[in-house]
Amino acid sequence: MPDLSECRERDDVPTYYERPLLKAPHWEWNVVTYLFLGGIMGGLGLIQLIAHPERPQERRLKRTVRITSFILAAGNPAILITHLGRPERFLNMLRIVKIKSPMSLGVWGLVLYSGAAGANVVRELAIDGVLPRWMRLLAPGFLAPLQALLGAFTAGYTGVLLSATANPFWGSGKRHIPAASVCSGLASASALASLLSTFEGNHAVVHKLERLEMVAGAAELLILNDFKRAAGAYGAPFFKGKRGERLLTYTVVAGTLAPLALNLIGQAVKLPKPIDAVRTTLASALTLVGGYVLRESLIEAGKESARDPRAAFRQPR
Amino acid sequence: MANGFFTDTTLCIGCKACEVACKQWNELPSDGFVFTGESYDNTSELSGTTWRHVAFVEQMAIDHQGELQDRWLMSSDVCKHCTNAGCHEACPTGAIIRNEFGAVFIQPDVCNGCGYCVVSCPFGVVDLIEKFDPDGTHYNLASLATSRLDARATAVQQSGGVAGKCTLCYDRQRLGFVPACAKACPTESIQFGDLDELRERAHARVERLSERGVSAQLYGADDVGGGIGALNAFFLLTDRPETYNLPAQPVLPSTRQPAGYTAAAVAALGLALAGWMIFRNA
Ligand code: SF4
Ligand code: SF4
């Protein structure tokens, strides 16, 4: 048998008729939404902790954020279920706890988070007098930091879920994708909280929330920038071409830089109330769109990366 | 005891008896009538319902003496039943287990079709099986088969919407039989048995080939690197792994988790600190 492997150039990587090695994820809008809302949920967990209970406006923010986070935590599993091949077997995820499986830990994180968030909502309603006052005892004080901790985990896991797979692009962001997920989650959570506070007329807290949104958004941009450098060729499906342009337009420019500018104006200039409300609404909406497009781009780039046999032959460590 | 496959690609004649035997024994539906036009391979890849796939490589080149040389490489691909299996670690329902024969097995009645194993296999083996749709066109191309399947949907079809891959013929092994593909292979290109014995045989085969002037290498008989360890289904190749659509550098996905969780924790801590400072003042 002749040995033809020596006749080829050494660095000429053969492929099998350019066919993909890996299977692409089957994930569609539902998983994108699940990750997006998971990030927001996580961010809200932090905000409900740091809002000061003694200041009336922040008390009110705490209440709003807790109720919103509980609604998201209760609704998100429903979205996750829609992506299963066998939705009726969703509860099989709760048969076991598997430390090595981000999907398993994430579902458990979500379950515990909804428990903590639910108890904290009961506390709020008991303080309000909607529920009997003794029911406050159902949510002892440690549940607030616990919800924040579980929130941080939930937001981070939405990144590890992607980066700890065999997908070459996702794997190339083993640090960047989880860190960016946390930042994006908190930026979106702050945006949602300022939006809700504006609608409630609770304007006093909006500027603080917007400062938090600015910090998280700036951190996200720095991480994405470093990711582009670190990912090299693995990052092409995400940073280059049509998807790269989309990311630049929606997540970087419209979703982070524009709200950053709008929020800076809000901090620097004292605008009349109605105009300021419009500014907040616009900035928040843009941040939320940017957060969604980030998750969507991550998933879609993963699909393209899976179809590239050369990337899959040398999987990033 | 761990059993596995040693696939010696120098013996493969590309007859696809293994593919057919696997489909028959496991009652797997047809892939439809596809003509790739690339080679004699019209199966193209492993899937949720194709558990053996014979790759067919045609090589032609001018050698150093200016002579035209050509050769055919054929290799029957299969799930590697990895020592540290990405699919096994990733499965959140515990549907994927390691059975008493050392094989990685998906319990079809436990799997809920989350698809996380699909993106966690470094070899692109496991995939979701489409839900069986008697009116759909997916399995209908072989109309004869469809009419039979309509009346008696197989176990796999009844459990469509779940992940599927080679079981290393769990049922046959329990009966003391050799897996269907190994049984059907007319050239003993697919050898089944105790792994220690197979590895020994494989190393000896590489040496024998080298004496005859054929340079061959084993893929997966020993640690493939990246944290995966050795493969319970390993191969003897005469060209680079990529030629057969095998990764030169596979990586176990879970090895990236510590870095990921740490990065997330650092980001969360930093932002929490910033948030605390922002909200501290009145
Ligand atoms: S080759 Fe893929 S499907 Fe087979 S055991 Fe390894 S990780 Fe699982
Ligand atoms: S699709 Fe099934 S076997 Fe695969 S990870 Fe999900 S539950 Fe486990």
What's a quick, concise take on this entry?
The complex is a heterodimer of chains A (317) and B (282). With 317 residues, chain A is an all-alpha fold. Chain A has helices at 29-50, 56-82, 102-128, 143-163, 168-172, 176-200, 206-231, 236-239, 241-268, 273-306, 309-313.
How would you describe the overall organization of this protein?
Chain A has 11 helices and no strands. By secondary structure, chain A is mainly alpha-helical. Chain A has a single domain (25-313), classed as Formate dehydrogenase/DMSO reductase domain (Formate dehydrogenase/DMSO reductase fold, Up-down Bundle), CATH 1.20.1630. The mean pLDDT of chain A is 94. By secondary structure, chain B is an alpha+beta fold. The longest helix of chain B is centred in the C-terminal third of the chain and has 24 residues, at 257-280. One iron/sulfur cluster (SF4) binds next to loops of chain B. Residues 90-91, 93, 95-96, 106, 111-117, 162-163 of chain B line the site of one iron/sulfur cluster.
| Overall pLDDT level of chain B | 90
What portion of residues of chain B belong to β-strands? 15-25%
Order of helices and strands of chain A: HHHHHHHHHHH
Number of domains of chain A: 1
The helix tally of chain B amounts to 8
What does the oligomeric state look like here?
A: heterodimer
The strand line-up of the biggest sheet of chain B is 8-1-10-9
Low-pLDDT parts of chain A are none
Based on the structure given, which CATH architecture of chain A is correct?
A: Up-down Bundle
Rg result of chain A: 22 Å
Unreliable segments of chain B (pLDDT under 50, ≥5 consecutive)?
A: 136-153
How many distinct domains of chain B? 2
Top-tier CATH class of the largest domain in chain B: Alpha Beta
Key descriptive features of the protein:
heterodimer, A: 317 residues, mainly alpha, Formate dehydrogenase/DMSO reductase fold, 11 helices, B: 282 residues, alpha+beta, Alpha-Beta Plaits, 2 domains, four-stranded mixed sheet, two-stranded antiparallel ribbon, globular, binds iron/sulfur cluster
